[in-house]
């Protein structure tokens, strides 16, 4: 028992972190690999141990003993024995069921037919008879299992069709059994791709140690159990470089899927600048251009488009147009649910998910784990900030009163309408103007959810705006003007949340957001985290005593987990940041 320690471990597997204790920051970093943040008020942050958090940790080599050691090192009181036992039991489930290469079996085309075809199978192996029996008792899983009569089959194993590889992993994860996939992946079409030593722009290309470490953690020795997974790095840390480093290591035809057309163009520009690939080897597959080459960059939007709401997705064919050896899912936390069905069929292809946060508001983190792959690499944001790989950032929440004439409308509105009224509070406009005047040397992004609100801001400030309706050519021109300093203030809708590189942006003003989206908060802060000499500032404007306060609190959870604190500023007609 050590009353100076910051952590209180409770029997319900919740962890309370006293943020004022001497070792609080050290403890928070130690919790990141295996615990999830739930609440982050001023004094005590609440973490939760979950099966998925432990299995992600186990897949990255962080053992149950490692987790138990962290709790025992930082616990203020004795760690409940039941919690340690649960950690060891839950973490040990990772690896108790494995997928192994199986036989090719000749089967008749139809019953009684002499004509035969070859069907490819895998072994689904349990490490004990009880686990084997439990799997077979699961009705959803049982339908995909075939008893093996092969004398060479591993003990306690079933046969499954190769095409059911992804589906079986999903179903077993839902049943509490993460599958360790040990089946070798295909190499795909060879491609001579290498990183340059000097970029096409004439700058030396230096790959940071953590970028190389992330790529190696994914590629491994190229043997069974390697070549798939998720890499978690903050915005501004160079996830694109990690993706290109993996391409260099694997040297194979690559499909890259990202969030929007601007991100497609950025990927193509980066590939041309930092690799030996030529323009003739890279294709764009989007709403504007649909070509496929050895390296193809596509958008999630075009893949999930279909002419009929109930019909097939015609562009899913891209996944089978070439013998891809690598698929890069950029901003994998945005992977649309329909694509998961295709991802389940692509289990033989090496794949990597790149993201700043594994948080998904639709609760599909388990799908990312089982279909794209478990977390292979993670670095605390504050660690990269300390090493000056990303910018130092200050987060400020400005609380503003709702105008008296809107109070009745707000009081009688439903939850969704309440959020809109609070978000579009007209008193936010003068605050935006005051912040811009107060920081004349910063390059500023004003980010919001509601187009009507953003249009009013644009009229007041006389600055350009980018929304989903902005033509691609115009969008790219405005982004370029911002990068070159021709524009100091840029208003953007949620289209700029993801995969946009604006390296000189040093201040962001968030005027409204998507309810309580933690991933959006992380991404918006990420827009100003590219390394720079000056400190970055992230302002969030919140209407006091409304649902926006509650949603704002949830949005800040992820950043609190990464060690960022929000300074609360009350606006009463004048913006005073020295309170």
Q: pLDDT under 50 segments (min length 5)?
A: none
Distance between the termini: 38 Å
Largest sheet: 7 strands, parallel
**Given the structure, what is the number of helices?**
22
Over the alpha carbons, how many angstroms does the gyration radius reach?
25 Å
Average pLDDT over all residues? 88
Strand content bin: 15-25%
Structural overview:
- With 579 residues, the chain is α/β, with parallel strands linked by helices.
- Helix content is 34%, strand content 20%.
- It contains 22 helices and 22 strands.
- The strands form four sheets. Strands 11-12-10-13-14-9-15 form a seven-stranded parallel beta sheet, with helices on both faces. Strands 18-19-17-20-21-16-22 form a seven-stranded parallel beta sheet, with helices on both faces.
- Strand 13, helix 12 (337-345) and strand 14 (350-355) form a beta-alpha-beta unit.
- Helix 3 (64-74) runs antiparallel to helix 4 (81-92).
- The protein is globular and about 85 Å long.
- The protein starts with 6 loop residues before the first strand and ends in a 9-residue tail after the last strand.
- The model has no long low-confidence stretch (mean pLDDT 88).
């Amino acid at each position: 028992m050590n009353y100076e320690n910051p952590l209180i471990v409770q029997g319900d597997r919740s962890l309370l972190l006293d943020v004022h204790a001497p070792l609080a920051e050290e403890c928070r970093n130690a919790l990141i690999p295996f615990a999830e943040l739930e609440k982050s008020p001023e004094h005590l942050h609440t973490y939760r141990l979950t099966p998925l958090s432990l299995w992600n940790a186990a897949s990255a080599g962080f053992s149950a003993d490692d987790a138990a050691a962290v709790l025992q090192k930082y616990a203020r009181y004795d760690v409940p024995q039941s919690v340690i036992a649960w950690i060891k039991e839950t973490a040990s489930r990772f690896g108790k069921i494995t997928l192994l290469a199986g036989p090719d079996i000749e089967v008749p085309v139809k019953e009684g037919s002499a004509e035969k075809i070859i069907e490819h199978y895998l072994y689904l192996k349990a490490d004990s008879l009880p686990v084997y029996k439990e799997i077979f008792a699961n009705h959803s899983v049982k339908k995909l299992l075939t008893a093996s009569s092969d004398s060479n089959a591993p003990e306690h194993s079933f046969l499954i069709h190769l095409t059911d590889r992804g589906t079986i992993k999903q179903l077993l994860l839902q049943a509490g059994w993460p599958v360790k996939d040990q089946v070798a992946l295909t190499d795909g079409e060879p491609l001579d791709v290498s990183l340059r030593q000097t970029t096409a722009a004439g700058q030396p290309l230096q790959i940071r140690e953590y970028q190389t470490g992330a790529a190696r953690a994914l590629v491994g020795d190229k043997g069974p159990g390697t070549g798939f997974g998720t890499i978690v790095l903050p915005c501004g840390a160079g996830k694109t470089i990690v993706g290109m480093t993996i391409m260099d290591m694997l040297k194979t035809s690559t499909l890259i899927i990202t969030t929007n057309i601007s991100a497609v163009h950025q990927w193509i520009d980066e590939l041309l600048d930092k690799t030996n690939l030529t323009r003739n080897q890279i294709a764009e597959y989007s709403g504007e251009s649909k070509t496929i080459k050895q390296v193809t960059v596509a958008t999630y939007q075009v893949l999930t488009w279909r002419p009929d709401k109930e019909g097939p997705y015609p562009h899913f064919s891209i996944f089978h147009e070439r013998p891809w050896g690598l698929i890069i899912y950029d901003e994998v936390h945005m992977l649309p649910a329909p694509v998961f069905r295709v991802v389940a069929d692509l289990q033989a292809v090496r794949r990597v998910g790149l993201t700043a946060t594994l948080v998904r508001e639709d609760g599909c983190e388990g799908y990312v784990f089982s279909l794209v792959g478990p977390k292979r690499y993670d670095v605390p944001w504050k660690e990269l900030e300390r090493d000056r790989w990303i910018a130092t950032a200050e987060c400020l929440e400005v609380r503003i009163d709702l105008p008296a004439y809107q109070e009745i409308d707000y009081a009688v509105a439903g939850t969704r309408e309440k959020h809109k009224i609070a978000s579009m509070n007209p008193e936010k406009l003068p605050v935006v103007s005051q912040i811009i005047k107060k920081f004349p040397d910063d390059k500023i992004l004003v980010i919001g959810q509601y187009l009507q609100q953003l249009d009013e801001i644009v009229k007041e400030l006389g600055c350009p705006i980018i929304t989903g309706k902005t033509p691609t050519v115009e969008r790219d021109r405005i982004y370029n003007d911002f990068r070159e300093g021709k524009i100091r203030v840029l208003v953007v809708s949620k289209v700029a949340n993801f995969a946009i590189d604006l390296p000189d942006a040093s201040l962001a003003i968030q005027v409204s957001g998507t309810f309580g989206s933690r991933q959006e908060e992380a991404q918006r802060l990420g827009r100003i985290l590219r390394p720079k000499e000056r400190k970055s500032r992230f302002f969030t404007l919140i209407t006091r005593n409304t649902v926006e306060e509650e949603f704002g609190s949830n949005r800040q959870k992820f950043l609190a987990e990464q060690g960022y604190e929000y300074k609360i500023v009350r606006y009463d007609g004048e913006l005073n940041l020295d309170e």
